[in-house]
User: Fold this.
Amino acid sequence: TWTTDSIVEEQVELVRAQVGGKRVVCGLSGGVDSAVAAALVQRAVGDQLTCVFVDHGLLRKDEARQVEEDFVAATGVRLKVVDARERFLTALAGVTDPETKRKAIGREFIRVFEQAAREVVEEAGAHGEQVEFLVQGTLYPDVVESGGGAGAATIKSHHNVGGLPDDLQFALVEPLRALFKDEVRKVGLELGLPDEIVWRQPFPGPGLGIRIIGEVTEERLAVLRDADAIAREELTAAGLDREIWQCPVVLLAEVRSVGVQGDGRTYGHPVVLRPVSSEDAMTADWSRVPYDVLARISTRITNEVRAVNRVTLDITSKPPGTIEWE
Ligand code: XMP
Assistant:
């Protein structure tokens, strides 16, 4: 069996052999896989790697800062940040259909990433160097899933960094191809990444954009970010992080619910808690989170997040319900 240090050593050697003296680019999504893949490649080839982080404004509270500051501090990686928050809000204005929303986010993402990758190529060219490789945090289950024909992945359009134009093609570096998620986490810890990144829940590429049912606006994102942060804090405080696969918090932005808050009647919006237990996200069951933990989450969200006056619990397994609502 492999130990974690031997995985790191072996992958570092393989990456060095593959990349040689060429330059490498890597898109960071804010998730565990791309962070660990980038950290491994950085360990192998240092400043030959440039990471690109597209801040689309759809991440959860504090996640962009953790990438921009904590990840960089832990790895010393060379990072290019693109602030694309306005651009994504513009692209999402008026969009409510889930697939249209996913496609709009995927399309903007690839355009912004493409532009950033071109800049990296040009900067390297100015020093007589070539960018030949793109890092992807593909894991073993992804390899199996995409090789295995029709799977759940085709039910919703997932976005990866595919679809770059012909004049901007790279060979792939996939240092996590043989690993499962738990091994990826161990490798991340071995490489010195912060716990907040290594233990991050799976999070969809389109981010909070697909957890707002209805149009995505800056205001709604702020509401959802606050509610989500409270749910995460309480689940962590209750020691449930490792038991729960993930707990999306969904804002029903087009539903108005009546409440009494303070001394008056309010029209607010419900949020849905969607805690699930799963091995691989292909199937899932709703998590039996203790009532007292649910009670704390509900009380805090309705006290602390003005626009939300109702907290509901999703008790649907997958199938038939997917984990995300859109
Ligand atoms: P569903 O909602 O299909 O989600 O049950 C299964 C798992 O995949 C995540 N998810 C995504 N991950 N890009 C991703 O990288 C996406 O577009 C995407 N959509 C859903 C979801 O959070 C769950 O873990």
Observations:
- The longest strand covers residues 264-273.
